[in-house]
Amino acid sequence: MKFDTPATTNPIDRGRVIGIPHDRIDGPAKVTGTAPYAYERHDAAPNAAYGWIVGSAIAKGRIGAIDLRAAEAAPGVLGIVTHQNAGPLGKGNFNTAHLLGGPQVEHYEQAVALVIADTLENARDAARLVRIDYAPEQGRFDLAAERDKGIPPPPGFGGPADTKTGDFEAGFAKAAVKIDQSYTTPDQSHAMMEPHATTAAWNGDKLTLWTSNQMIAWSVGEMAKTLKIPPENIRLVSPYIGGGFGAKLWVRADALLAALGSRMIGRPVKVAIARPQIPNNTVHRPATIQRIRIGADKQGVIDAIAHEVWSGDLPGGGAETAAQQTRLLYRGPNRLTTHRLSTLDLPEGNAMRAPGEAVGLLALEVAMDELAEACGVDPVELRIRNDVQYDPEAGPQRPFSSRKLIECLREGAARFGWNRRNPKSGQVRDGRWLVGMGVASAFRNNLVGKSGARIGVDAKGHVIVETDMTDIGTGSYTIIAQTAAEMMGVPLEAVTVRLGDSRFPVSAGSGGQWGANSSTAGVYAAAMALRAKLAEKAGFPADKALFEDGLIRLGNQSQSLATLAGREGLWAEDSMEFGDLDKRYAQATFGAHFCEVGVDIDTAEVRVRRMGGAFAAGRILNPKSARSQVIGAMTMGVGAALMEELSVDTRFGFFVNHDMAEYLVPVHADIPHQDVLFIDELDDKSSPMKAKGVGELGICGAGAAVANAIYNATGVRLRDYPLTIDKILAAQTGQRVA
Fold first, then answer.
1. Which residue, 22, 212, 345, 453, is the most exposed by fewest CB within 10 angstroms?
2. Confidence class of residue 156 from pLDDT cuts 50, 70 and 90?
3. Fold of 2-35+448-583
4. Are 223 and 255 in contact (CB under 8 A)?
């Protein structure tokens, strides 16, 4: 099915199941421990051996020699994989570094061996006996030192490296009010509950991978290229994923090494990347340096805006496109955005929840607050004055498909009690605490992608949906079931959803906030095909038939789906293919974050007291799971603002705090009540569902609202994240933080 004209009235609009809060249908399996995760597939791959990854002890250089004798002689060892015995390997397009290193080492903790044993403990202990001689080389590990060597990255998901509209320099020079500040964000790590894990088994030349992966079809292709075998010889199964945040968009070392290990010893092998290995072995959000310049009149109306971003990655990697929201969020005829990519020999930088906007808004929304103060304009009002209903780079000929930023700001402010905010910083006290409020806009692009599904009805009238879409804790099972139930006119409990298997039709997968909207649109397409088949069997015109209560009706005539399906059942398969509406209309999601903090007058400890957010993201398919997504994203925003930072050892090129003891993330005590409001919105140019993504929108701007609240509380303006106690104290005393 093609989606190339705006959606009209369709079965989804009935709203009998779609748009209603529902518990997750996969919840009981997860809380009872019966949901099979990748490392637990004892049912499918009994008698599996255990693999333990040996990571490189240097960040750059070569392996001179590997001595495996002591490890091979250790108890329970069944085999050891290295580059010397792995056979010829390729590299997928999505992996910047090789998943198995050697003889060249590309980054610290790059996998250079896999020790396989009969138990996990034996594999771990034997891995410590592997002896490797390295020839280290000088690496580049400091973004600030390499900043001036950055080059424009090739175009990617974030668009072109640079954009320019009007004459920024002239507009900025003549502006009555100018902001020119630099901001930094650190490297950050995914901290999902389930580590990267895979169980692998061969049957002849056919490989099955039970793995934790967000993008099934992508990863089959990547594994085929890496192993140099036909993709049809690989089955990838990932029905349950304990969090991904972008780190599991692609296959990682666990999948490749489990496959190589299984092939070596002739039995299934399971591999999990140990928690302390994850930050250096997998991917992370790269650090950024950002310069923002804004020129406006005395009322705060922007005439010129520039956002320049520097980030780093391994050779062949990509940039953190942190200026992409600045291209679309606010007005201004004179505009400039640039991205520069420096070569760093740190572990691979790549996608982490809302890549680009998540860190770009940490800078832009603080700059907007600085502009508001310079103009003497309320920060909410300043953002409203700079709203624009079309792509400001393309002009009025490319309007937004829907844009309710102003509604988010106004309704969010009213619910939060913004009118009680004292505009003068450092004036509100509550005992030992200085109290302040902050606001920030939220923005995330709305992306869609081709997505397919297969749907059937059995002899009992039960509906089954199959698609390789994944559920990374976002609620995919439930919204897909809701879509099928709405389309086929059956209750939710009459739908079974099967996900995450490469034998199923190819979906858009989970990532980039495109998963929910795209995958449900694919189910919509398949359901329309099945409705047509059922209508034909019933002798009804498909465009006039009604599907409700397990029946297909036309006037006073009806037949049950069960009868029409017959003993063999009836199936249909289709995909939703999207046309050029995203070219003709700018498509994005919007929101407004509000935060109140307390800062201790002596210790500078920051406590988030409450948070609120109003969001516009098209039709909300399941308000209950959508709210969970948003509060989880807001929580990540607090982490980005106050604590998350991978500390780089710039001498040896690795992240020092590579475990959950030292890489800090928010816990329950850090997070107060979070109020979430969804603004009523239907976007008929996004998909037949009239929905948009929402899973990444909630992190975008949340940390900036915290930063702006800290300023309102203390008068201390910090521009280097995370906003830790030492930085606040140093700013209060005029000292520098080393």
1. 22
2. confident
3. Aldehyde Oxidoreductase; domain 4 (3.30.365)
4. yes
